[in-house]
Amino acid sequence: MKETTLHVIGMTCNHCKASVESALNELDGVTTATVSLPDNSVTVVHEDVTQERLVEAIEEIGYDVAPA
Amino acid sequence: MKETTLHVIGMTCNHCKASVESALNELDGVTTATVSLPDNSVTVVHEDVTQERLVEAIEEIGYDVAPA
């Protein structure tokens, strides 16, 4: 199990939090995704999923991921 | 047909816009509800619906309405 934290741009409210968590949870290999609105971040616990795939899932629903 | 514009506090994104419009559109007597995020407002075209009922529908889903 790995943990990846990404900085997400554009999440403003609980609807955004739910959308991002849901988009990540739908990916094969993702166990949990938890957004922190105050931190503008999402922490993903996952098996073998590339960071690229996580970023893609977030961008697909209209948010940006800041470079590490 | 009447038109009522209310100042809504707490709408931050397109999810919020959709939630508020949907809550108002569900009311009997409401024809259209259109949120302007830049203006923090919603304009409702309606038949006989009290302003109190409109405010109540907005507050029920977690937003506040500023006094006129």
Automatic annotation (TrEMBL), chains A, B:
GO biological process: copper ion transport
Keywords: Copper, Metal-binding
Boundaries of every HMA domain copy: 2-66
GO terms assigned for molecular function: copper ion binding
Alphabetical list of Gene3D superfamilies matching this protein: 3.30.70.100
Pfam family, one: HMA
InterPro entries: Cu-bd (IPR000428), Heavy-metal-associated_CS (IPR017969), HMA_dom (IPR006121), HMA_dom_sf (IPR036163)
Protein's name according to its UniProt entry: Copper insertion chaperone and transporter component
Species annotation: Exiguobacterium oxidotolerans
Gene: copZ
